[in-house]
Amino acid sequence: MLKKFVLFVFALLALLLLCFFAPNVRKKEKTTFLLVPQNATLSSITDSLKKKDVLFIPMSFYYFTRFSGYDKKIQSGRYALTPGLSNLFLLNKLVKGRQEPIRITFNNIRTKEQLCARITDQLMLDSLSLHQALSDEKMLEPYGVNNETSVSIFLPDTYEVFWDISATELLDKMYRAYTAFWTKERIEKAQQVALSSTEVIILASIVEEESNLASEKPTIAGLYLNRLQRNMLLQADPTIKFALGDFTIKRIWSKHIEATKQSPYNTYVNNGLPPGPIRIPEKQSIDAVLHYQKHDYYYMCAKGPGEIGHHFTNTYRTHINNANRYRKEMNQLGIQ
Known about the structure:
mainly alpha; 48% helix
């Protein structure tokens, strides 16, 4: 009996050592990541590991971690499952929250809704929570923005964050990158044209909507600055599209201007810049405003179909001629 008991004890110890130290993570072609959301349970984590087929013995992980009390101290995150990890080392990583960062990228975005969807598609954070944060005046106050301008602190780029980042942490991250971008030189250039950093971004959003040509952007920026300085209406067609929420419109007609007459984004009836950006401009467009071209242009008209760019002029008569020619060519092609 004693001999059997000793053998049983040794077998039990061997099993425990196996659960502790034996490699339990398989080698895969690519690194496998375990996503642990908030309110995850040990059972849901084990099920996720089973589906990924990454553990040699999933139940050894379950019983070992349950015995250790991990089910009472689960931390959310994105964890890399390194080949050869034992249950002990895997548990140590999970308990200490040693997660791997993720790289998020966003660009070519017009609206707050699009921004929230694009970012949260890559994170644990849900779109509604981020949208609420970007619309909460009290929460936005420390960042110097409001409901209309909150997206201006999001500069298109690639950022490294943790998968379970909160809305507040994300705002802090974006604001640090934003303040780093606004160097002393950029701030001084904005002051030279009597614009705040937010107003520069608003103007850059219009400039970017007007043209994809990098070479044209400083010219367009200079044109709108000329109009602002003379207290002229900007009459920027992209602001009408934004007010309508329809970016597929090819031509702006009087019916569109009339339909958005009550919108603060209608620059045909409201003087000055709109209350917020009409897209999230690239850094290049922001710099195009800061390094605008000095000239005496006040009018611009898109070139005809099949052509790229705009005609610029300082006289209304020439502008009307350009506009009439453009309308004629669009009508001939049936483009409404």
